[in-house]
Design goal:
The N and C termini lie far apart (49 Å). β6 and β7 form a beta hairpin. The longest helix is centred in the N-terminal third of the chain and has 18 residues. Helix content is 33%, strand content 25%. By secondary structure, the protein is of the alpha/beta class. The strands form two sheets. Strands 5-6-7-8-9-10 form a six-stranded mixed sheet, sandwiched between helices. The chain has a four-stranded mixed sheet with strand order 2-1-3-4. It is built from nine helices and ten strands. The protein folds into two domains: 143 residues, Glutaredoxin (3-Layer(aba) Sandwich); 110 residues, Trna Endonuclease, Chain: A, domain 1, CATH 3.40.1350.10.
């Protein structure tokens, strides 16, 4: 099936609600949809007025599309998903993106991944990754979206793609109020604390700098000079590379080229 044929069968629908959906999030999503239409040829609709009956119908469609194990759509702790804990469409944290093929929902955002309590793919996460061609059109339609858990597991299983000699140590290490996605150990027995993000932003820098080196040092009886910090991502937004250099944070994008602080 050619991309042109797929484009005729696919429509992106962006749902939002006036005075509820954050304007900056909505505007960013619309800008990305414009770029996708221009560069990839996929059309979209923007919808902000649904009756109660239409909202109920959309929720039912979303639940059917998600199935039991495909992906999570109802908020149960962690990041907010497309359906709130009160079983309403969740517009408060950004617009809802629905992707239809032949009028049937095949993807929806924000959503989570099964088996992970705090996983979350926002609308902007998906649009940025799709636009930058980190996932193919075919993968989207087969439901094979690459998630943050996939990224973490890729690095966990093959740490040498970041740096020769790295080995796996642990995942989801809790230090005070922070949770470190992945910890690797290098050839000099230094611990590399990694935050795994599909799209790294200024906020990601804040998450990494909150990793308490003092507490980590105490927990693992490790000198602070033996601790490295880094980010692994598919894409970046803003001036994050410069910020990483300033904060001595290593930054890897998939191509896995270090753009941040370089350890000697």
């Amino acid at each position: 099936m050619t991309n042109e044929t797929l484009q005729r069968k696919i429509i992106f629908e962006l749902y939002y609600k006036d005075l509820i959906t954050p304007n900056d999030n909505l505007n960013h999503s619309v800008k990305l949809l414009d770029e996708i239409k221009s560069k990839k040829g996929f059309d979209y609709k923007i919808i902000n007025e649904l009756t109660t009956e239409q909202e109920d119908d959309l929720k039912d469609e979303i639940r059917i599309a998600a199935g039991r194990w495909k992906y999570k759509v109802v908020t149960k702790g962690g990041g907010a998903l497309v359906i709130s804990g009160k079983k309403k469409l969740n517009y408060q944290h950004g617009p809802i993106l629905v992707i239809r093929k032949n009028n049937k929902i095949i993807e929806v955002f924000p959503r989570g991944d099964p088996g992970s309590k705090e996983s979350r793919w926002t609308t902007i996460d998906f649009l940025l990754t799709f636009l930058k061609e980190k996932i193919s059109v075919t993968e989207v339609f087969r439901g094979q979206i690459f998630s943050e858990d996939d990224l973490r597991n890729l690095i966990k299983s093959t740490p040498g793609i970041i740096e020769k000699g790295l080995t796996y140590f642990d995942i989801e290490v809790e230090i005070d109020s922070s949770r470190i996605d992945l910890v690797l150990i290098d050839k000099k027995n230094r611990h590399l604390l990694l935050e795994c993000k599909l799209n790294a932003t200024d906020k990601t820098i804040g998450q990494v700098t909150r990793y308490s080196l003092d507490r980590y040092s105490e927990k693992f009886t490790l000198p602070k000079e033996k601790i490295r910090r880094g980010i692994v991502t598919l894409s970046v937004t803003g001036q994050i590379a410069d910020a990483c250099k300033e904060q001595n944070i290593e930054l890897y994008i998939v191509r896995l080229k270090n753009l941040g602080f370089k350890n000697k």
